[in-house]
Amino acid sequence: MAAPAGLEIVAADVPVARVLAALVADADRRRTVRGYTTQPARVRLSDLRTRLLRDRVFEDPGRLLGRLKRRGLLAELAGGGGEKTFEIPYPDELRHLLMEEVARAETVEPGPVSPVPDEPAEIRAMDGDFLDQLRDVLHHRLEETIEFGRTFDVERLAGYLKGLFGEALYFDSLISLLQQYALADVALLAPTGRTTGATGFHLALFGPPGTGKTFSIDDLVRGNPRSGVPPHGLPGRNRYCGGITPVQFLRVGAAYTGRTFNFIVPEFNDWFKYRGMVEPLKLVMEQREVKWETTLGTVGPYTFRSFFSVNYNVRTAGADDYWTTIGDPNFAALEDRMLLRFHPMTRERFRAVEASAERLELGELGFELAGPIRDHLTLVHAIETGHPLVASRFRRRSIRLERPLYDALREVSEKALKTTRFPKFSPRLKSRAVRLAAAASLVAYFRESDEPTVPIGPMETDFSRRFYEEEVHAREGRRGAIAR
What CA dihedral angle connects 181, 187, 190 and 196, to 10 degrees? Predict the structure, then answer.
């Protein structure tokens, strides 16, 4: 069959097209046994709706399905019980058509207040970086990467980072890399079988200058050729925001509608020199619809589905108490929506930072797992985001939530509540700890590759519990903002 001209679907149906393309690839893979086609490819409407809900796409698929039926790309089968099933005469052609529409939609046209002019080109360049890395893995190191993944888990990742940076520093780098795994935004599956969340989270490292914050969220992730640090994070999925004002960011954000990236902001303090920034940024972090009106025009409406990793400076007193240097009284609302790590400059931390810098400058840090970790991270991300190059080879899996994780975290919160009548930490912190445990389970993705879901084991639970204890302790040390 000659592929028809572009489907010309409306913008609202683009996220549906992306999900349907992955479902079509799954259906095509299931009908092939040892290279032979055994039956026509089929998809059920209930499966499509479940996948849409898991990926947090709330647009009704009826309009797109109707267009595909009229084009002869889907055929509705007669059946009882109210269950709609569609036969796909040409699954490969349909998948390519859908992904062409998705790619076309990713070049965003300017709105009333247009994005930064080069942003669509920036997105295309980042997509190219990711695609180049994925193709390199698939063509040259696929078996090697899967074999590496069979013995890889959060404990081994922690051991690698501990060997590089020592006990006092490794934990921040570990959480930063776990956020990279979490960017796939994998669905969290409750014991009832219902999707109740996803892995993605915002990360904030804060403390006085010189405590290693920028290294953890930027140098380790994107690499720093000047200091000899190779990249460990996802290629083409981290947008560096150094020098960008919050107004520019809100304009840039419109270009990322329907996409998931990580925005690295090395000096978050600077964004709050502008009044009125907390409310629109809070909407961004909650992934709600953003519409920002100014005297120069209107930004949006658009929905931001990406995440942040930021650092900012605070004034400290001892090892526990701190005052934020951000004067906006509503800034605590943003902190409450991020996974926080407090970096006091203790004597131990000073020595650890100093020793790590010396070893880096003397070339004593080997970074021998940088390449395998990046390959593994790229492959897992591609699988869990339904990338067309892997959708027919690997099935996406949700992460299975279990009661023991919640029991372990409740012990932490109950212990903290016994020390104060007025806690300064929010119940939202527990959900951050759950997401961190889920992200940690993705590190062991290929260890239990035959399981229909990815389990959260005792190792990930212990790691999450430790983080939760430290974050509760850090929140209790908050003393407000410095008066300006």
Answer: 110
